[in-house]
Amino acid sequence: MTYRLRKLASGSYDVILDGAIVASLVRTDIRHQVKWTAELLEDLPPERMPAPFKAPEHDFGTLEEACRWLGVPMESTW
Questions:
Q1: From edge to edge, which strands make up the β-sheet containing 12-17?
Q2: CA–CA separation, 32 vs 22, rounded Å?
């Protein structure tokens, strides 16, 4: 499976798989603690979630960590 990211606004991306938007990747900044969250758009049972998802949401400390997890090159986020 190959994911692509499409930048929306600052700190916000669509996560695209096989031409369909399947998740969002967004940055939150609460009290200067940044978190990136990848969230599936559809509520699926774990066995139907696209890899590497094992839950509806996954949190990351950096955009780079999220990209590595999805297998997306950082260069594609610019």
A1: 3-7, 12-17, 20-30, 33-40, 57-60
A2: 29
Instruction: Residue 67: count other Cβ atoms within 10 Å of its Cβ.
Output: 22
Q: What is the pLDDT of residues 1-20, one digit of tens each?
A: 689 999 999 999 999 999 99
Full DSSP string of 5-40:
EEE-STTEEEEEETTEEEEEEEEEEETTEEEEEEEE
Instruction: State the pTM of this model.
Output: 0.89
Say how far apart CA 57 and CA 26 lie, in whole Å. Answer: 11
